[in-house]
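Final report, Chapter 2: Outcomes

The project's central promise was a pipeline that accepts a single protein chain and returns its three-dimensional structure in a standardized token representation, suitable for archiving and comparison. That pipeline is now operational. To close this chapter, we reproduce one record exactly as it appears in the project archive, with the input sequence first and the structure output second.
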Amino acid sequence: MEIENVLVTGGGGFLGKAIVKKLLKEKLKVASFSRNFYPDLEKLGVVQIQGDIVDKKAVAKALKGIDAVFHVAAKPGIGVFYEDFFRINVTGTRNVIEACLENKIKYMIYTSSPSVIFDESDMENVDESVPYPEKYLAPYPETKAMAEKLVKNASEKGLETIILRPHLIWGPDDNHVVPKILKRATRLKRIGREDDLVDFIYIDNAADAHILALQKLMENPLLSGNVYFISQDDPVSKWDMANAFLDAAGKPPIKGHASVRTVYMAGSIFEFVYKFFKIKKDPPMTRFAAKELATSHWFNISRAKKDLGYYPKISTREGLKRLKQWFQQ
């Protein structure tokens, strides 16, 4: 690579750390910008800059002397408080963009989510031409869509950008998808159809896609502003995959079934209660989560293959084997 200094926002997180490790293999100088300090990053020799992404001055200072940025930091989840998501996902992204422009940084790779186009219906083999929906059921996809638009606008102001939409990242060290399934293992029920398909992506493949995005953007500036779905390119039943995660952790499979209508109503009630009592944690269920669990969502990654040369190197089977080994250790 023709660059030397790279910064990853959220470098201590699940995806952020995987990207950091790949960048180090490329012999680049890597810094992480996060609120917390991570001993794992210290062992890797990564410069850690502690600060809040909503602090404009702190972000601008952290990005001095940087050649390229991977903006991974975000607030995920199914929480109900819009402002909490807006601060990090929108204000934080705006701060990173402005700091890039101020510091004359040329490249930024932004991690988004396919949920930005979720319109509550089945999404099967859809590509990047699908528009944003007119309304959202949750703050997370709405604020990630707003952030995407900011990144696209930045690409017209001289900042070369690529937006990636990985779906349901999992693997060893996962602190989001797999732990949530394991935590609710005894209470989980199948919802809706059992033959609907969903995309997942193994952590190393997701990180590879980010490195490829930067490499290809540097080779071809015409890719700037583009959006790409990335996945295992192997849609599977979400319930089969959940059972595979449970099996890897030595837990029994999901038993029982719940109707979509019942779960959707439960989600509405939880949202009301959590808002009324100002409970900041993610509710056990929301309308958005109910709809996601009851529909297919898998994506055509032809564009990522063609433009980025992205093909998942690690199969789902190999990934599950590695996950099982990690649990055993």
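Archive annotation: Residues 5-170+200-234+297-314 form a domain with the Rossmann fold fold (CATH 3.40.50.720).
This record, like all others produced under the grant, will remain available to the consortium after the project formally closes.
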